[in-house]
């Protein structure tokens, strides 16, 4: 994936014409406070993309450990943050107290952010940020069952309710498991891994699952890259319905962003990034010619709901060295126009089936 000459400069060029009046953040912030527990990926670049003016209302749709929220507050925004994980909401109460009335935390799914805001009398906001996938806080807690490096219950549920990873793996058909591993984890040997999982059932611990995957893929002890990575990612995405949540979240953001409002999305998986890329391409009018998956339509063209997306941004070498989890991150951003939101999720669902 080719990088731009300067990710921050690229975003600045993309937003410069729509910033309007007010003291907005248009250069890379150098003095944003850092949380020792969680330094969010592309934090400064996200703040530049949001071009926050003091007093604006912004949404951190994936609160996690609050890294982006802290940066938004420091830039002068009022923040509404949500998370489906009750642990994140509980641990975020200290930041609510520090924010002096400028932070509201909501327990809920970001795919329903428009409803969550409407319930609080908010119909439009100036910016929305999504950080897609599992949080560092969730990975680092072995008891949550997300990590193949820490033994714990085979859970993986972000909301801590519904079917767990163990429940699904112990009942699912081998073919269904293979499909999930292939489509959500890019695991080329998905059938071999699925066969090994079924043969090893019942499974109840992350350590057991990791061992099964390593044996199935003939992973030599001490090899640099753990082959469990792709399968754990795929199972997590499936258990939490993350791709459906993303499609719903993008459509919800389109509905609640005011004209001139900014959308910033950080993703870590190629399928997630493709969904975001295709959504912004379509909604900005860049897909009028159709594609190999969807022929040109004779229906009247809809007005673009977003301006031309800014160039994608990837982490710097320095950030990758400081935080290895940043290596696969991609930031995409765009600015909302005054056109009414489109009905449905047309090209987003198409992206998921590619």
UniProtKB/TrEMBL annotation:
Record family assignment: Belongs to the methyltransferase superfamily. RsmH family.
Signal peptide residue numbers: none
Record-linked SUPFAM superfamilies: Putative methyltransferase TM0872, insert domain, S-adenosyl-L-methionine-dependent methyltransferases
GO MF: rRNA (cytosine-N4-)-methyltransferase activity
Function (record text): Specifically methylates the N4 position of cytidine in position 1402 (C1402) of 16S rRNA.
Gene Ontology terms: cellular component: cytoplasm
Source organism per UniProt: Sphingopyxis lindanitolerans
Disordered as annotated region, ranges: 282-332
InterPro entries the UniProt entry points to: RsmH, SAM-dep_MeTrfase_MraW_recog, SAM-dependent_MTases_sf
Annotated binding of S-adenosyl-L-methionine, by residue: 66-68, 83, 110, 131, 138
PANTHER family according to UniProt: 12S RRNA N4-METHYLCYTIDINE METHYLTRANSFERASE, S-ADENOSYL-METHYLTRANSFERASE MRAW
Main location group: cytoplasm
The keyword Protease appears for this protein: no
GO biological process, one term: rRNA base methylation
Pfam family, one: Methyltransf_5
Reaction catalysed by this enzyme: cytidine(1402) in 16S rRNA + S-adenosyl-L-methionine = N(4)-methylcytidine(1402) in 16S rRNA + S-adenosyl-L-homocysteine + H(+)
Protein name: Ribosomal RNA small subunit methyltransferase H
Enzyme Commission no: 2.1.1.199
S-adenosyl-L-methionine found in the keyword field: yes
